[in-house]
């Protein structure tokens, strides 16, 4: 899936003539939860609460959501390309797409769990990393089993 969290998305529904521009909140399996009102919920009046029609957040399937092209501002499909320096980027493709690079949200560039900077108890010390322990020509160095 090329939908990154917190991207600008367009809600595309075939049974509705409206198209909403939302920011993604989270992805649960193949369901995208968007910020804002996705569904109108009818609640019956009861003891302790009023009835009526309320807007609630509800998950949408990813097939009903498309990323917004940053240049044209229209919904588009997403493709993957590699730049000359080897960097992997998302590009817009399809009808009404400019083919421009879709930027990755800044919040996703920050790691939720930072990489460890110190050696752990199961890490090999640096003085033993480059030590030659096996000779391919003679087959020596392998443990006798």
From TrEMBL:
This is 50S ribosomal protein L24. Belongs to the universal ribosomal protein uL24 family. Residues 39-96 form the Large ribosomal subunit protein uL24 C-terminal domain. Pfam families: ribosomal_L24 (PF17136). GO terms for biological process: translation. Gene3D superfamilies: 2.30.30.30. One of its GO terms (molecular function) is RNA binding. InterPro entries: Rib_uL2_dom2, Ribosomal_uL24, Ribosomal_uL24_C, Ribosomal_uL24_KOW, Translation_prot_SH3-like_sf. Keywords: Ribonucleoprotein, Ribosomal protein. SUPFAM superfamilies: Translation proteins SH3-like domain. GO terms for cellular component: ribonucleoprotein complex; ribosome.
